[in-house]
Amino acid sequence: MKVLVINGPNLNLLGKREPGLYGHSTLEQIEARVTALGVELGLEVDFVQSNSEGTLVDAVQSAAGRAAAIVINPAAYTHTSVALRDAITAVGLPAVEVHLSNILAREEFRHTSLTAPSCRGVIAGFGAEGYLLALRAVASLLAS
Ligand code: DQA
Q: Whose CA is nearest to atom 13 of ligand 1?
């Protein structure tokens, strides 16, 4: 079974971007760890990263028919994107939202996730490890 992992704006800068908040791992390193865990869990993982909202909406839509579940870090679009929320709802696949930082412990504008209500759950605050936890969550959702 295939899982699509989608990363939003500025996550291509991981490793260099505010490492105190987001850690020292690059997106490539995180993706390699997720791929390896996928092998263990019997899941094939595809990755998309974009800085553009429309491309992210297209990526969510593209999951229909080719993936069994979605892991998504919508990054800043978490707090603004009705379009992404609607896309996740529209495809109807189980989705897990992930954030490297604990968005509830940060500025107030980050406390609201427009996308989370379209997801089965949210993992936030565990750094890169959160992506692995999200993949495990997806594996458990797909097994149930
Ligand atoms: C983030 C949290 C968002 O508020 C922020 O805009 C990001 C990254 C996280 O992974 O902690 O770009 O999604």
A: 75
